[in-house]
């Protein structure tokens, strides 16, 4: 069993499938209060798949995952991946390649869709044509899925939506595995309110890719809390496409328009934060715990946490890319004809720079960084 996966905390949702015979009758499971909060927040978010989840804390569980294919026959899985825009994405891809390996009894058809919706639809149609056994999709955007999902269903191929969410009715896919990005946005804003303790915030937001549920969720969650703070002002919010180059470009243009007017930069992933830091450095703007500008980031990848440990990023909200083991567990249950969870949330936490203590986040240490493999 994969060690990393053992450390995942899952919230398993009740969400019974409308499809006869699909879904689990098990109680939802959670290990921490934070995980229960995650579920409750998801239930508030209309655009998200976990809206079906029921917040009920119960038994403890860890992700029993990456156990390998026990059916005795090779299982052919297609994975339509978003692209390779970020360190998070690279880690997610590697995790799928490790879990769905030939040694584990799988044949993985992996397509890097390079953030192109049309390419992603084409990839899924290719999987249908090849009559693969299971299709996994990390959807670039929330919209536009109904037709192709209907095609997969007509072909009798089970579909698992992973990482991000879609707008389609949940009768059109079989399971969903991912993180609650709205809750990540709420955590970031709650931490900021705690840190500022009533002081003014003039905020610039570097959003992720347009139309991605990770962008929509983080924005919605952050804005919901921001709306309760009359002392906060969001000066501007632009997409940096989840890339370092995008983050740098947006930050350079923000500096031109708002130099001297902002004290908070929210980057919706670590790579954007790296680009934003480069742009601020070049403009002699100081940031981090000893600087003039507070930086908030998302993902908490190894390098992002290194910057957090160094005090350059004040707060980094985790998003766990290690999800393939959970997807494999669902596929193994489907193959065995057993019950499985229709919706599985992979839990996230948040980290803050040394010297900061928070009710919403863990203070970074060398040990935490040493334990972060991706
Ligand atoms: O935060 C970002 C990636 O969908 C949660 O996509 C994922 C996001 C992640 O490119 O780095």
Task: Summarize the helices and strands and which ones pair or pack.
Elements: H1 3-6, E1 10-12, H2 33-44, E2 75-81, H3 87-99, E3 106-112, H4 117-129, E4 134-137, H5 146-154, E5 159-163, E6 175-178, H6 181-196, E7 201-207, H7 213-226, E8 232-239, H8 244-258, E9 264-267, H9 270-282, E10 294-299, H10 302-309, E11 315-318, H11 324-336, E12 343-346, E13 350-352, E14 362-363, H12 366-370
Parallel strand pairs: 2-3, 2-4, 4-5, 5-6, 6-12, 7-8, 7-9, 9-10, 10-11, 13-14
Antiparallel strand pairs: 1-12, 11-13
The structure holds beta-D-fucofuranose.
Beta-D-fucofuranose is lined by residues 85-86, 88-89, 163-164, 214, 242, 269, 298-299, 319.
The share of residues in extended strands comes to 15-25%
Question: Which residues form runs of ≥5 with pLDDT under 50?
Answer: 1-65
- What is the number of helices? 12
Biggest β-sheet description: 7 strands, mixed
The percent of residues in helical segments reads: 25-40%
Nearest-integer average pLDDT: 86
Characterization of this structure:
The protein is α/β, with parallel strands linked by helices. Helix content is 36%, strand content 18%. The protein contains twelve helices and 14 strands. The protein has helices at residues 3-6, 33-44, 87-99, 117-129, 146-154, 181-196, 213-226, 244-258, 270-282, 302-309, 324-336, 366-370, and strands spanning 10-12, 75-81, 106-112, 134-137, 159-163, 175-178, 201-207, 232-239, 264-267, 294-299, 315-318, 343-346, 350-352, 362-363. Helix 6 packs parallel to helix 7 and helix 8 (244-258) crosses helix 9 (270-282). The chain starts with a helix and ends with a helix. The relative contact order is 0.16. The model is unreliable at 1-65 (pLDDT under 50). The protein binds beta-D-fucofuranose. Residues 85-86, 88-89, 163-164, 214, 242, 269, 298-299, 319 line the site of beta-D-fucofuranose.
């Amino acid at each position: 069993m994969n060690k990393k996966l053992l450390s995942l905390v899952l919230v398993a949702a009740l969400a019974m499938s409308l499809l006869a015979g699909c879904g689990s009758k098990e109680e939802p499971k959670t290990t921490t209060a934070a995980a229960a909060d995650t579920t409750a927040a998801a239930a508030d978010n209309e655009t998200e798949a976990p809206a079906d989840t029921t917040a009920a804390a119960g038994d403890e569980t860890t992700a029993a995952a990456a156990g390998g294919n026990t059916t005795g026959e090779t299982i052919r899985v297609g994975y339509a991946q978003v692209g390779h825009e970020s360190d998070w994405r690279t880690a997610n891809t590697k995790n799928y390649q490790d879990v769905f390996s030939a040694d584990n009894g799988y044949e993985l058809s992996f397509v890097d869709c390079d953030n192109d919706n049309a390419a992603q639809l084409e990839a899924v149609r290719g999987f249908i044509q090849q009559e693969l056994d299971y299709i996994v999709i990390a959807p670039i955007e929330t919209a536009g899925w109904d037709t192709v999902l209907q095609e997969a269903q007509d072909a009798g191929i089970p579909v698992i939506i992973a990482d991000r969410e879609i707008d389609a009715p949940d009768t059109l896919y079989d399971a969903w595995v991912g993180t609650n990005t709205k809750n990540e946005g709420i955590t970031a804003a709650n931490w900021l309110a705690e840190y500022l303790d009533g002081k003014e915030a003039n905020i610039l937001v570097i959003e992720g890719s347009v139309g991605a549920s990770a962008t929509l969720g983080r924005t919605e969650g952050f804005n919901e809390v921001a709306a309760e703070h009359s002392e906060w002002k969001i000066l501007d919010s632009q997409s940096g496409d989840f890339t370092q180059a995008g983050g740098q470009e947006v930050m350079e243009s923000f500096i031109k328009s708002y130099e001297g007017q902002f004290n908070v930069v929210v980057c919706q992933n670590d790579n954007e934060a790296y680009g934003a830091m480069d742009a601020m450095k070049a403009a002699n703007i100081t940031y981090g715990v000893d600087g003039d500008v507070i930086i908030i980031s998302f993902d908490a990848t190894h390098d992002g946490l290194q910057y957090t440990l160094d005090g350059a990023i004040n707060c980094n909200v985790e998003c766990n890319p290690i999800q393939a083991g959970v997807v494999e567990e669902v596929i193994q249950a489907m193959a065995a004809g057993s019950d499985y969870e229709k919706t599985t949330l992979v839990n996230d936490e948040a980290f803050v720079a040394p010297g900061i203590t928070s009710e919403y986040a863990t203070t970074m240490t060398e040990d935490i960084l040493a334990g972060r493999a991706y």
